[in-house]
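Structure ticket #2291
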Amino acid sequence: MEYRNLGSSGLRVSEIALGSWLTFGSSVDAPSTQDVVHAAYDVGINLFDTADVYANGRAEEALGQALQGIPRPYVVIATKCFFPMSDRTNDRGLSRKHIVESVEASLRRLRTDYIDLHQCHRADPSTPVEETVRAYEDLIRQGKLLYWGVSEWRAAQIVDACRIADARNAYRPVSNQPQYNLVRRQIEREVIPVSRREGLGQIVFSPLGQGVLTGKYSGGARPSGTRATDEERNQFMNAFLEEDVLDRVDRLRPLADELGVSLAQLALAWCLREPNISSVIVGARTMKQIQENAKASGIRIPDELASRIDEILPA
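Resolution: structure written out below.
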């Protein structure tokens, strides 16, 4: 496993991170969660990503339980808040009240005294950015958080947060968590250039395009037990399952063969060609899945091969 700095911070994170969306606390039981988390740790993964809203808190609980027995300083725990956790009017957003209460609840569920990276799951137009920045400043000074970041923020919103933090001599965000993969490359236009300038690193989600970039849906196949056949978890997949996208993914297979890697490893390594990407988040239901995905770390894609990939799936 290779490691990169998270943006311009001194925090080092594994190139491959283990996520928990749609898996821990829901589709993966406790013993399997334990196996996957420890398998990830054994192959050098140190970044474990979750959120309060995943399975309504159960993902954090499952991750916290699975991390027991691993020395706390050896892992980087990242979680998030923004989305509603109940019907209470203040149990959502990025107000000081909600951030503080969400952090306290996450600490309990994760069974830890501090969170390495806490992220704004989305931007909150109803809360002044200054209020959010000051809340994070206080929580970091209290030792409950070490760093803070954002997720799916636009370039202008990232700049606003950095400027407000600078004006108050407060801690800046160190990361952004956007969607990024061979099919979804929008962050290349503005978010990456701005993040590079402002010192934020990307921790990208869906680097495998909801599993489509593994090739498992080749030719329109819908293998039983996959996300595509799960009505509760396939709501974001339709665009990835279009015939043209599947055909283009099939055209990537010979390129992966040339490099001697799987399609999934090619897709992950392609994301990591961008220096501003600090880590890519993968989900896993089995030990084998995380072990295979971890092998993408350190794979180098030659420029000529990258150009051929761009011809198949252009920005």
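Closing remark: The chain has a mean pLDDT of 94.
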